[in-house]
Amino acid sequence: MERTPNDTSVGVDDPYEHVERCDHLTDDGRCRYAFEHAERDPEFARERRENDYACLVGEEDNDWSDCPHFRSRATDRECARCGLEERRMAHSGERPLLEEHHLSYPSDGQEPNHEITVYLCRWCHAKIHASWARIDDEAPPDPEALAEREGRRSRELDEMGFESAADRYDP
Predict the structure, then answer these.
(1) How many domains would you assign to the chain?
(2) Domain limits at 143?
(3) How confident is the model over 64-75, as pLDDT tens digits?
(4) Extended beta strands in 12-122, E state
(5) Quick check: is 94 in a domain?
(6) What is the pTM (predicted TM-score) of this model?
């Protein structure tokens, strides 16, 4: 199993198995990175331009790990392991229910060239770094996580409730 630089578990054997698509991939299969950031890697941009900006992965037998500018950050706001949905309270300093979990770390002292992240609830995140849980485990949300989410939901519903000014400001 992959490990962090601090030797804790990442929770996966192959980070690329948890990738749906690259953040730079457009709906029509083109590489947005080569178009928008050509000055950062002119050679890469030139190669993509010669191929009408087609994504490198769509060519030949390439996969995500072959692209030097691959990046995949989760956008769905639910735990990748147990499915707990985020419940954020506006204007609150409360700790979020979900945390970003990095699947890609440097190996052999090298810098990671790919950013691969998923969201995990705080409870699953702790279990994975304690090295006994895996991201692809079928796990129900932790009871404490459900209680925290429902507490936030209740406060949210209270905020949406109507109370007349006459009731709020009794002279």
Answers:
(1) 1
(2) 72-160
(3) 988 999 999 998
(4) 71-73, 98-102, 115-121
(5) yes
(6) 0.80
